[in-house]
Each structure stands twice: as C-alpha cells, then as structure tokens.
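Q: Start with the shorter request: fold the first protein.
A: Done. Sequence, then structure:
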Amino acid sequence: MNKAARTKQFIVEKTAPVFNEKGYAGTSLTDLTNATGLTKGSIYGNFENKDEVALAAFEYNILQVTNIIRQEKAKQETYRDRLLAYVHVYTNFLKHPFPAGGCPILNTATEADDTHPALKQRAAEAMSKWKDSVAHEITMGIRQGEFSPQTNPEQAALTIIAIIEGCIMITKLTGKIHYRNAIMQSLETLINEL
C-alpha cells in the first residue's frame, strides 16, 4: 500500500467511529480533524468531500460487523447453528470488536432516510446483502432437512433481521441489558422452530 492509500485508510479508520456515533449530520469537519490529527487540507486532499469520507466510513463499519458474523458462522457445522451464531454474537456483543456506536445499518438508515440519498442507498444495499445471506442459510438448511420445507427463507430472514435490529434499538434506547437478553432468547426460539 502506498503512502496515499495508507493515509486514506487511516482517515477512514479514525473517522468511522465518529460517523457511526454522531451520524453524518452531527459529524463536523472539526470532528474529523480531531479524530485523525490531520488538517482539513490533508483530509480533503485524500477525499473529495465529507460525503466521500462518510461513505468510506460506512463501508468500513459494515465490513467490521460482517467479518465478526462470518468468523462466528464459520465455526459452526449446521445451518441452524450458523443462524444461532447471530444470537451468540448479539447476546455477547461486548466480546466482539463491533464498531463504536453500534449497528452501522441501523444508525445510517435512521439518519439518512431522507437527508442523504447515497448513504441511504448504501445502507439499503447492506441490508439486502444481509437478508440474502440469511435467506441462503435457511434455504440450505431446508435442503439439508434442518428446517421445515414450509419455511419461507426470505420472510424468515427478514424477521430475524428485524428482531436483531429492533433488539439493538431497544437496548440502546433503554440501556436495559435484560431486554436484549429476552429478545435474543425469543430469536433463539424462533430459529429453533424453523
């Protein structure tokens, strides 16, 4: 990696938590310079504008979450256990290097729904990929006889994601860990009943 690429990566890594915690609108240029220790000129010498930094930061945050889930799923032998890896990860999220501020899809979708079309599009694409990944696990589990053939993979995938995202939102909003635990127990039951 050349110096320009390293600098760009440094900017993304340092600003990704800021964008994920404060959101696009809440993140100022001062926040970016404070996070990186670089000048405005250094940041904008590597990125065209704040939008470009925010989009790169979102992709970085999504990659962090995706890698955590991928690693946990890879340890499992059955498709049911691969789905239950979500329960394990989100019940024990402090044991994993999640991005500061929580789920980047939830954070970005909530903020960028009407104010930032490009970020909204990236969040929608990330959600679609997640849905497709979970639906694929369910489809394969049906083929292997682990799940009922009457299971609708897309519907089940959307329900699993909605429960996870709702759990994150409720727990973040209330600060009540026992809510998270109760919701994750419900998700575990749902997966076991597929």
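Q: Next, the second protein, separately.
A: Sequence, then structure:
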Amino acid sequence: MNRLFGGGRGLVSEYGECTEVLVDRTVLIALQAELGGDQAIIGAFVRNYVALLPWRVSRLHRALDNADMEDAMDAVLSLKTSSHMVGAICMDRLARELEIGIRLLPNENHLDELRPLVTHIEQYVAGTIAELESPVP
C-alpha cells in the first residue's frame, strides 16, 4: 500500500484540542477509490496540500494583520476545504471554528480577537505535515 495511506481515526476533544492522529487516512483511501485507484494523483494532491499549508496559515495571519474580513474568510475557506479533502481532521475542525468566529464578528475591526485561534491552528501545521508524509506503520 502507498505510504500515504493507513488506518486510524483522529479525534478532536470537546475542547477543540486534537488528540491521537491529526489525519484520517481513510479519507485519502476513499478519494483514491473515487479516482479509479490512481495513487499518483493522490500523492500529488497530498504534496500540494503539504506545500501550501504553511502559506494558508500565514495568509490567515496577514488577513488579521490587515483587518481584511474578505481575505480572512477566503483564507479560512481554502484551509477548511483543502484540509477536509485530504483528511486533515484537526485542521478541518479548527478552520471550521475560525470560520464561525469570522461570521460572528460584527466587523473587520474585531478580526484581531481571532488571533489566538489562528495561533492554535499554526501549532498543528508541522504535525499534520509529518503525518501526511510519514510511512504507514
């Protein structure tokens, strides 16, 4: 089996903390099945996600720094969607939380209130990348 796949379910605690694994590899297995079993496509998809993940999180920081509500929403939707598709369950969960936070803000002047959540997301970038790149035990 390709090194990008394997079993295991990640969990998110009721407090938003990610526990156990950060990636649900069964999502990639299902995507591979939908694509006719082509491992090369899945490998390229994962490599692209890994390459763009730090940029996506830095884009969130920039949107907050610039008090740009539209860019913040675009950035969080990009992170949420791509994370969901690759099975990065922690990133997906935290991006969903951030999206809700953005939607609940009265205006862009309050974006800075979400900085702790973006910092929290950033703490899982390296671990998510490591899990996606690690061989299956």
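Q: Describe the second briefly.
A: The chain has one domain: 11-133. The domain at 11-133 is CATH 1.20.120.160 (Four Helix Bundle (Hemerythrin (Met), subunit A)).
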